[in-house]
From TrEMBL:
UniProt name for this protein: DUF4159 domain-containing protein
Lineage, highest ranks first: Bacteria, Pseudomonadati, Pseudomonadota, Alphaproteobacteria, Hyphomicrobiales
Boundaries of every Aerotolerance regulator N-terminal domain copy: 6-80
Every DUF4159 domain range: 703-920
Protease found in the keyword field: no
Organism: Aquamicrobium soli
Bilayer-spanning residue ranges: 6-27, 629-648, 660-680
Keywords carried by this UniProt record: Membrane, Transmembrane, Transmembrane helix
């Protein structure tokens, strides 16, 4: 009967079915049916000589019912399992479980964990130890061996990572651990994606004497990743990549999002039959394209499906200006020819309609360019000069190229980075070289510092800068003799740049080199963020702090605790440098998972000399029937009891209750009483009620509560944050709070806690109306709720375009009786309850702390603080207090502040102290103003 998907854990118990005939013989007898006698004496005497007839057999249906009940009990004891799974074919005393938890494992993570749990359970039932290793964790992570509970705990604590796997390092560790455990079983749970070094890694892992190998992989590698997102001249071009084994035609939708998470454009990417790369275009104006902050593929829940964008992906409008163009028949001699060729791939170029500078410059400025390039422009007309200077001061980047006109025009200190000598230096002149000069290495303070020196470039003619104390700081590129080739200067919010040679290949061959394109590209990038040369240099030379990361599910999340600053020119995505944005609000750098030439190759199972069992990721679909059979047997027992009562006349309207029914009823009552007496404890019979112990524990110490949102990451940060605040309170005050209390606002008692911290998360379930009503009652009865939307980096509480978290807060407060609110005034007790604080920062800064508005804010004559003696029932912030307070087990900060500033974390902790002192003591400092009057009345 192999067609029946049923197995038994204890098949020997089925021998009990042979006892069914004996049970049938015992059950066919039933007590005699009680006989109803009529009282009249004559009828009794008439029947006294009659012989009493006693039924000898029970009805056939009652016997069948009892036989079925006995069969169910016997079958239940045999532990039947419907649709059983095959156990692990292990032969050794150890199971080595090697699991891929890189970005490609995220879509099948739940199935992967379910499969691994079954393997661990099979090994644990056999008493085997289990090694659990993950290929996307730290190299020193603990791998065991573990017992059953330890292995399951290690598995359930793991999460997919938004990084590639590192099989060679992890497989080497597992092979080293198995060297002392010969004959172990190895289970490889692969994500289906090949990686460099796999062949050597598998050879290392299987170098020992393994008893057998269990190979587990997904059904197919169906993930699609974004490998490129380019802001072209007329559209935004997207490129996606899929595995080579996926040959069916397919199309997928991508969404473009701004820095507030709003979807502002869409694109459709198409894969033809057998194509591994699909492309799509977003044809919107470049002003809208410049607002793109990230691109994500719909329906793809992994890190490779999102691509973040920085300033290098944003096109800028660049104005081109020249006083003379070469003949159209000789375009290579045009001053703007090579500039157009170099800038057109990554900038939108605009040119004036007039050759008159008095008209051309205003035409360019009206187009609001980010950068203007002037090719050999000499004297700038006085009527437009000041407007051009103001444009630079407000953030524009002006790039000028030398030439005969500029050399003859003299100095223009407001629009040149250095003071120039009159005339130019050339071969054969008074300041000539014997040979053309090469370009020296770019100086460390230059935006071109990380570019290689163009060894093929030589310069035969240039304009010279007057020597001065600042000439070295303003030199971005120089010749071998030390004279400047490119100089730059920050002016106001903008930048002035001068190439000391011409933009055409007459004075040098720089314009026809690849370095010319890269140098102009750096200048365009510099203009995009309106930064200075120094800022750009520091950003490229120093490590950048993590700002917003791409999670394993393809969503933007705050930086994890193990994220580290991104080193300069870092390319690889690692556990310390996961994909995402690095920097600060002033400027970020995108660090994406997939390169433009990325290829997704399906992982092929290696050749093995040991027995191999191939499996697929799947949930455990086996169904244990023991409980269902026991429940069915109990139901039949209840039916049997009711049948006996019915046959005994218990449910008949007329007639007396029979002796058999009374006996059965009495027995049932005695059984119920006996069952209840087994749970009675006379020694503990008191008036305590369920939940009293928890209530006593809750009020024994002052405890800060936080709302359980249902999101594990959010709840973990809330608890870690309150633990950090508690430690700071113990160090700085006399208060010793108890452990943080996570509360379910729908059912937990809230009155035990003076303050409840509620982190608002748009992905958490919306609280029910009853739960919101309980919070409203808690606030009306004297409690305070601190709402934290944690979205200061995207939008504020009162912003016109609310973030998802702020919108969720509005939905919650819309069902409550919220008093009028105001930002904490400068004279509020919160600003001085313990520390003197002008603001209340958290992990972010900038959002005000909103409290209940004062009833009489203008009454400052009698009291220098707020007039209300009560404590505000509500506080609202967007600064992420818990994220700033949160600490790990060693006491180190769990999350970085934005911007990364230790002082900001200190002020955030002080803000938490002020809030707690205010909650526990109220407006006590406002009453101190009466102390002089009281002392005067006392005669002191």
């Amino acid at each position: 009967m192999s067609w029946l998907p049923l197995s038994f854990g204890a098949p020997m118990m089925l021998w009990g079915l042979l006892a069914l005939p004996v049970i049938w013989w015992l059950l066919k007898l039933t007590p005699p049916k009680p006989q109803a006698e009529v009282f009249p004496p004559l009828k009794i005497l008439a029947r006294v000589l009659q012989r009493e007839e006693t039924p000898q057999n029970s009805p056939w249906w009652l016997t069948l019912l009892r036989l079925l009940m006995a069969a169910l009990v016997i079958a239940a004891l045999a532990e039947p399992v419907f649709n059983p799974r095959e156990p692990l074919p292990a032969q050794g005393s150890t199971l080595a479980l090697v699991i891929d938890n890189g970005w490609a494992a995220a879509p099948d993570w739940d199935k992967l964990v379910a499969t691994a749990e079954r393997l661990i359970a099979d090994a644990g039932n056999k008493g085997e130890l289990v090694i659990v290793a993950f290929t996307a964790e730290k190299s020193n992570a603990e791998i065991g061996p573990f017992d059953l509970s330890g292995a399951l705990s290690r598995l359930r604590a793991a999460r997919p990572r938004p990084i590639p796997t590192d099989r060679p390092a992890v497989y080497a560790r597992v092979a080293q651990a198995l060297a002392s455990l010969p004959g172990a079983s190895i289970a490889i749970l692969a994500d289906g994606l090949a990686a460099p070094g796999d062949e050597a890694a598998f050879k290392t892992l299987l170098s020992g004497q393994a008893a057998n190998v269990v190979w587990v992989e997904p059904d197919r590698l169906a993930a699609i990743g974004l490998s490129s997102a380019k802001n072209e001249v007329d559209n935004f071009t997207l490129t996606a990549v899929r595995a080579a084994g996926d040959l069916a035609p397919r199309q997928i939708t991508a969404g473009a999002f701004d820095d507030k998470g709003r979807r502002i454009a869409d694109a459709t990417l198409r894969f033809g039959p057998g194509e591994t790369r699909g492309t799509g275009r977003i044809a919107v104006p470049f002003e809208l394209r410049n607002d793109f902050s990230s691109i994500a593929l719909d329906g793809e829940r992994h890190a490779g499906a999102m691509r973040v964008l920085d300033n290098s992906s944003k096109r800028r409008r660049v104005g081109l200006l020249s006083q003379s163009d070469a003949d159209q028949a000789q375009p290579l001699l045009s001053p703007l020819y090579y500039i157009r060729r170099a800038l057109s791939p990554f900038a939108d170029l605009v040119e004036p309609n007039s050759a008159d500078l008095a008209e051309a410059i205003p035409q360019l400025l009206d187009r609001k360019p980010a950068m203007i390039v002037m090719a050999d422009v000499g004297t700038i007309p006085a009527q437009v000069r000041q407007r051009l200077v103001d444009w630079v001061d407000n953030g524009g980047t002006l790039v000028r190229f030398a030439g005969s006109r500029l050399a003859a025009a003299g100095n223009d200190d407001d629009l040149l980075p250095v003071h120039l000598r009159t005339g130019e230096r050339s071969l054969g002149g008074s300041l000539s070289w014997t040979t053309p000069q090469p370009v020296a290495e770019f100086p460390a303070g230059s935006p071109f510092a990380d570019l290689p020196a163009p060894v093929e470039v030589t310069v035969s003619r240039q304009v010279l800068a007057e020597p001065g104390p600042n000439i070295a700081d303003r030199t971005w590129a120089s010749l071998a003799d030390g004279t400047p080739l490119v100089t730059g200067l920050k002016k106001g919010k903008g930048t002035l740049v001068l190439f000391h040679t011409t933009p055409e290949a007459t004075w040098s061959n720089l314009p026809i080199s690849g370095s010319f394109v890269e140098m102009l590209r750096r200048l365009v990038q510099l203009s995009r963020n309106q930064g200075s040369a120094a800022a750009g240099t520091e950003a490229s030379a120093a490590a950048l702090a993590p700002y917003r990361m791409i999670g394993a599910d393809g969503m933007l999340v705050p930086p994890p605790a193990d994220a580290r600053p991104l080193p300069a020119n870092a390319k690889a995505v690692t556990l310390e440098n996961p994909p995402g944005l690095y920097g600060s609000e002033a400027g970020v750098v995108a660090h994406n998972l997939l390169a433009a030439d990325a290829v997704l190759t399906p992982l092929a199972r290696p050749q093995m000399d040991v027995p191999v069992t191939t499996m697929r990721y799947a949930f455990d679909e086996s169904l244990h029937l023991k409980g269902s059979m026991i429940a069915a047997a109990l139901a039949l027992m209840l039916l049997d009891t009711l049948a006996v009562f019915w046959m005994g006349g218990l449910f008949s309207r007329g007639g007396s209750r029979c002796r058999g029914a009374a006996t059965a009823t009495t027995a049932a009552i005695l059984i119920a009483v006996a069952a209840l007496s087994l749970h009675a404890d006379p020694a503990r019979a008191d008036d305590s009620k369920p939940g009293d112990a928890a209530a006593i524990e809750a009020v024994a110490k002052t405890r800060i509560a936080y709302v359980l949102t249902g999101e594990p990451n959010v709840d973990a940060v809330s608890r870690a944050g309150i633990e950090g605040l508690n430690r700071f309170l113990v160090e700085k005050t006399a208060l010793e709070p108890g452990e943080p209390a996570g509360v379910d606002i729908a059912k937990d008692e809230l009155s035990f806690y003076p303050l409840i911290y509620w982190p608002i998360d748009a992905s958490a379930p919306m609280p029910s109306a009853a739960a919101i009503g309980r919070i409203d009652a808690y606030m009306n009865q004297g409690g305070t709720v601190l709402f934290d939307t944690r979205d200061q980096f995207s939008t504020g509480i009162g912003a016109d375009s609310a973030s998802p978290a702020t919108q969720r807060l509005r939905d919650i407060l819309g069902n409550m009786n919220v008093p009028p609110l105001e930002p904490v005034p400068a004279d509020h007790v919160l600003t001085k309850s313990f520390y003197i604080l002008p603001e209340f920062p958290g992990r972010f800064s900038g959002s005000p702390l909103w409290v209940e508005a004062s009833l009489d804010p203008d009454n400052a004559d009698n009291r220098p603080v707020r007039t209300s003696d009560g404590v505000t029932p509500i506080m609202i912030t967007a600064n992420d207090f818990a994220g700033a307070w949160a600490i790990d087990a060693s006491g180190a900060p769990l999350l970085p502040t934005v911007p990364p500033d230790p002082e900001q974390r200190l002020y955030a902790l002080r803000a938490g102290v002020n809030i707690m002192m205010y909650m526990l003591t109220g407006n006590y400092k406002s009453d101190q103003v009466h102390v002089p009057i009281l002392l005067e009345r006392l005669g002191q």
